[in-house]
Amino acid sequence: SFFNWDLDKFIYFGGYPGPVSFANEKNISRWLNYINDSLIETTISRDILLMSQVNKPILLRRLFQLGCTYSGQILSYQKMLGQLQDAGNTTTLAHYLELLNGAGILTGLNKYANHKVRSRSSSPKFQVYNTALMSALSSKTFTQAKKDKEFWGRLVESAIGAYLINEIRGTGIELYYWREQNMEVDFVLKKGDFLTAIEVKSSLKKERLSGLEVFGKAFKPNRFYFGATQPKL
């Protein structure tokens, strides 16, 4: 196992090697300080603000915080404008999300569609590159996170998404989500004409399974995967 951790601990603490020695509830303040100062602030300041022209650095930081809070959820740019002060326009937000993606900390997955234009105009689904970022900004301890079923479900989904988004870099594989009304598929992997649909939830829900069925009928993916897990309380 990774760092001799069980799966739940890896899902919450994310596996950054730097703070691994104090990735526990006893030293949670040290772990939080490391994630916030040594990782988040350093990445934003050095890898984004020093390398790119950012007219609204406070907005970029707020967008990052919002994306971590909503990781695993779809949020339209219009809703982002409503939650972020001095956000300007959707073009600015989309550009800042691209910068965060380039820095390897947060991305917005596009909705899978047969046409690229429709996919790019979709509402993004936030996805952190490491669940430590989501946990650190949640204000929930490891124990509290496991007891919060809704949050833990999104953390599990984000852990799978983080693995996928890191593994496909440089491979030519594209990662999407899919949703129509209340039907959803968490992840869709595409390379050429080869499609893989993945659904990962912390509890089995019939409507989520039917999302795979609807997607399957519409797009005929080559592979399906469904996984479910519950934390050890």
From TrEMBL:
Domain DUF4143 positions: 46-203
Name of the protein this chain belongs to: DUF4143 domain-containing protein
Organism: marine sediment metagenome
